[in-house]
Amino acid sequence: MSKDLIQFLKDLEQNNNKEWFEAHKSTFQKHQKTMKTFFAEVADRLRATDDIESHKVFRIYRDVRFSKDKTPYKSWFAGSFKRTAPMLRGGYYMSMQPGHTKVGGGFYGPSPTDLLRIRREFEQNDSEIRSILDDKKFKSIFGELMGEEVKTAPKGFSADHPAIDLIRKKQFYVMRSFNDAEVTKPDFQDKVVETFLALRPYFDYMSSVLTTNLDGEVIVK
């Protein structure tokens, strides 16, 4: 990624209004094209080892209808890569923001059925998920499992369960951070792909959970 792209996002953050954006729209379109090409190339590289159904770069325009923040534009580029459902679960995600670039993925909004299935799995046996999350390489890349969680325990679960730290979560994702110097290096795309590939043990495990019942019988065709 070029330093010009990072600088454009910095300038947009400082001038987040329609007048400035329209005056610099050609610059935005140039950088948007760069991002679309970048995401397409990453998607092609992921397909060498994973089944990617689709990918997309999100719109830069913010939906301000129900937000107190009325700034019209996002000061970052972001997008996602969708694995082929229903057998392959989990989604890859990347956002590029000056000083706060994030690469990772997981499960941001599991359905009530999927959320309950995940929690029941952790309730029954949390050793496999912990072995993945505590793996030295995985932890060095991503750190801790992230996501919103309930304050005590979900309905139907004991607050004293040994796996309550996992059970109380409503989201299950991990992220790797990159600074601007790392983002503008020639090997940044390699680092992104490397990061996504490091997610596979986690995705493979969660896909197995979400396509079987607690007895290990396949429930998805």
What does this protein structure show overall?
- The chain has 221 residues and is α+β, with helices and mostly antiparallel strands.
- The chain has a single domain, classed as 2-Layer Sandwich (BirA Bifunctional Protein, domain 2), CATH 3.30.930.
- The chain contains ten helices and five strands.
- The protein has helices at residues 3-14, 18-23, 25-46, 112-124, 127-133, 136-142, 164-167, 180-183, 188-197, 200-210; strands spanning 52-57, 77-83, 91-96, 101-107, 172-178.
- A five-stranded antiparallel β-sheet has the order 1-2-3-4-5.
- β3 and β4 form a beta hairpin.
- α3 (25-46) crosses α9 (188-197) and α5 runs antiparallel to α10 (200-210).
- The model has no long low-confidence stretch (mean pLDDT 97).
Alpha carbon gyration radius = 19 Å
Strand content: 5-15%
Q: What is the distance, rounded to the nearest whole angstrom, between the alpha carbons of the first and last residues?
A: 41 Å
CATH topology: BirA Bifunctional Protein, domain 2
**Which consecutive residue ranges, at least 5 long each, have pLDDT under 50?**
none
The main pleated sheet reads as: 5 strands, antiparallel
Which CATH architecture? 2-Layer Sandwich
Please list the strands of the largest sheet in the order they lie side by side: 1-2-3-4-5
Total tally of structural domains: 1
According to DSSP, the number of beta strands is 5
How confident overall, as mean pLDDT?
Answer: 97
- Class of secondary structure makeup: alpha+beta
- Percent range of helical residues: 40-55%
Multimeric state: single chain
- CATH first level: which class? Alpha Beta
Shape: globular
H/E series, N to C?
HHHEEEEHHHHEHHH
How many helices? The count is: 10
